[in-house]
């Protein structure tokens, strides 16, 4: 059995574990980066002081900032499909299919699949009285807190044919869930992003250096707490998967060392047996041999081996083990060898 098949289980675990570990490390460094940026991000009020503050930064751009204000559409707001009295600036419609599917283990379990998702948005600002900041590219926000306006579930009543079909296909329809979420006109939210002042006014948008834009009902401190807890969770995962990697690598190393020791022991035993054989042969050999009968290499033992195809009988068995390639007499390549019995 070769070494790879001996450690295949550990190798598979180690490769899957390394992938997860790599992902965790990446997520953790991203999380720390955001946490640091958010900790140092200034919290600014949308008022007259904002212009003074932005003047302190080069090109009138504050890389990461926290502002709070009321959502107000710049044009006509979007009206909810399900509740005509609700208007907003971002609308998300999700249609989910609920099914009971048979798992590979043979159990039936509830599963949900999103079959359609649709987003709609209209330009809007965050305002606080007469001052306002336009929110650019709001749909790119990593955290976008929306209110659920409508959540309906329409169950399906399956017939006999559906039951039979479901039994064979392994999927039974339960119903459709239609959800509508909106960022309502007039809601008070926190925006975290890059704040800039251009000729058209103040804008908040996704930052350029990979930091996320947040549009949330949470405050800066609760955002920080949330990030810190996901950082801690990632650290726990890192320790967990790191230990799995260490155990798997340790087992591979242990098996490798064990295998090497075993081979070494086998080799030693083989050498010991060969030496014993050589000794026994030497004791049984005829001591009074003429010069021509002796091996051309050691001139000690009798000639015992015939080299083929050249046919020279010139070596003893011990020397023949060390001469692999060419006949020492005629230099012809040795293809095979056989014991020679000279009587
Ligand atoms: Zn010899
Ligand atoms: Zn030869």
Give a summary of the structure in a few sentences.
The protein has helices at residues 3-6, 8-40, 49-54, 160-169, 220-284, 317-322; strands spanning 43-44, 61-73, 78-79, 87-102, 108-121, 124-128, 131-135, 143-144, 147-155, 171-184, 188-198, 201-205, 214-216, 305-308, 313-315, 336-339. With 343 residues, it is an alpha+beta fold. It is elongated.
Number of continuous helical runs:
6
Strand order across the largest sheet: 2-6-7-12-11
- Report the end-to-end length measured between terminal Cα atoms: 45 Å
List ligands, each type once. Answer: zinc ion
Membrane topology: Multi-pass membrane protein
GO biological process, one term: protein ubiquitination
Organism: Pieris macdunnoughi
Transmembrane segments: 233-254
Describe the protein:
With 343 residues, the protein is α+β, with helices and mostly antiparallel strands. The chain has three domains: 1-40 and 219-287, Helix Hairpins (Orthogonal Bundle), CATH 1.10.287; 44-218, no CATH class; 291-339, Herpes Virus-1 (2-Layer Sandwich). 36% of the residues lie in helices and 33% in strands. The strands form three sheets. Strands 2-6-7-12-11 form a five-stranded mixed barrel. Strands 3, 4, 5, 9 and 10 form a five-stranded antiparallel sheet that branches. A three-stranded antiparallel sheet has the order 15-14-16. The longest helix is centred in the C-terminal third of the chain and has 65 residues, at 220-284. The mean pLDDT is 89. Bound molecules: zinc ion (2 copies). Residues 307, 310, 312, 327, 329-330, 332 line the site of one zinc ion. Keywords: Membrane, Metal-binding, Mitochondrion, Mitochondrion outer membrane, Transferase, Transmembrane, Transmembrane helix, Ubl conjugation pathway, Zinc, Zinc-finger. It is found in: Mitochondrion outer membrane.
């Amino acid at each position: 059995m070769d070494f790879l098949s001996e450690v295949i289980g550990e190798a598979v675990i180690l490769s899957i574990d390394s992938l997860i570990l790599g992902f965790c490390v990446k997520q953790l460094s991203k999380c720390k980066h955001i946490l640091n940026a958010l900790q140092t991000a200034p919290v600014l009020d949308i008022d007259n002081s904002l212009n003074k503050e932005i003047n302190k930064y080069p090109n009138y751009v504050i890389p990461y900032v926290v502002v709070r204000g009321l959502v107000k559409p710049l044009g006509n707001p979007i009206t909810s499909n399900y509740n005509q009295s609700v208007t907003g600036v971002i609308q998300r419609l999700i249609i989910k299919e609920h099914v009971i599917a048979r798992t590979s283990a043979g159990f039936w379990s509830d599963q949900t699949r999103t079959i359609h998702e649709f987003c709609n948005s209209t330009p809007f600002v965050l305002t606080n009285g007469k001052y306002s900041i336009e929110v650019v590219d709001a749909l790119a926000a990593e955290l976008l807190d929306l209110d659920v306006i409508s959540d309906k579930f329409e169950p399906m009543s399956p017939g006999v044919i559906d039951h039979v079909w479901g039994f064979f296909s392994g999927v039974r329809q339960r119903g459709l869930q239609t959800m509508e979420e909106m960022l309502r006109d007039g809601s008070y939210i926190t925006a975290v992003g890059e704040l800039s002042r251009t000729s058209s006014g103040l804008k908040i948008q996704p930052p350029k250096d990979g930091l996320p834009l947040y549009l949330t009902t949470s405050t800066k401190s609760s955002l920080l707490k949330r990030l810190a807890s996901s950082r801690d969770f990632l650290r726990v995962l890192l320790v967990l998967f790191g230990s799995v990697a260490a155990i798997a690598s340790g087992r591979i190393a242990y098996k490798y060392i064990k295998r090497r020791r075993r081979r070494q022991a086998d080799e030693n035993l083989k050498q010991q047996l060969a030496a014993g054989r050589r000794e026994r042969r030497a004791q049984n050999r005829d001591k009074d041999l003429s010069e021509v009968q002796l091996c051309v290499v050691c001139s000690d033992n009798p000639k015992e081996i015939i080299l083929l195809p050249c046919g020279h009988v010139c070596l003893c068995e011990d020397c023949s083990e060390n001469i692999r390639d060419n006949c020492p007499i005629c230099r012809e390549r040795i293809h095979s060898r056989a014991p020679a019995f000279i009587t």
